[in-house]
């Protein structure tokens, strides 16, 4: 048995909701062969150790039971490695909008177009 984790600690629990043989037909084989697992975070309601069956109270004040797997859980996922081809996707559009603003003298100097001194979309001072 590991170190005692005090009641009130922020922890992650997991509970198997469906075994592989209980899962719906038609799932891809790699999905169908794994259990359907609930993972959630909450505050321990009683002292426990990692691996114990525990009850936690969630942030929305619901109680859930499961096996204690982690104390002070954090997110450690990512979106994977950088894809160099995706880095430049927005650059042509940015270059085009910069070129357009440089060719428009009102935009380039920061001045408003004649008749649009109030900076409104329709040039009518907001009177509609």
Which features characterize this protein?
four-stranded antiparallel beta barrel, 128 residues
Describe the structure.
With 128 residues, this protein is an alpha+beta fold. It has a domain at 10-71. The protein is 20% helix and 25% strand. It has four helices and four strands, in the order E-H-E-E-E-H-H-H. A four-stranded antiparallel β-barrel has the order 1-2-3-4. A hairpin with an 8-residue loop joins strand 2 (36-44) and strand 3. The chain is elongated. It starts with 9 loop residues before the first strand and ends in a 19-residue tail after the last helix. The mean pLDDT is 85.
Question: In summary, what is this structure?
Answer:
20% of the residues lie in helices and 25% in strands. It contains 4 helices and 4 strands.
């Amino acid at each position: 048995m590991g170190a005692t984790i005090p009641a009130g600690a922020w922890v992650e629990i997991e509970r198997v909701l469906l075994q592989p043989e209980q899962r719906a037909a038609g799932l891809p084989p790699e999905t169908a062969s794994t259990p359907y697992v609930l993972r959630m975070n909450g505050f321990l309601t009683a002292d426990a150790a990692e691996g114990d069956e525990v009850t936690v109270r969630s942030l929305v004040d619901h109680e859930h039971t499961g096996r204690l797997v982690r104390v002070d859980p954090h997110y450690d996922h990512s979106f994977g490695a950088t894809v160099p081809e995706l880095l430049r996707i927005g650059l042509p559009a940015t270059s085009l909008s910069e070129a357009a603003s440089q060719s428009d003298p009102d935009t380039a100097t920061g001045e408003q177009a004649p008749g649009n001194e109030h900076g409104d979309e329709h040039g009518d001072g907001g009177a509609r």
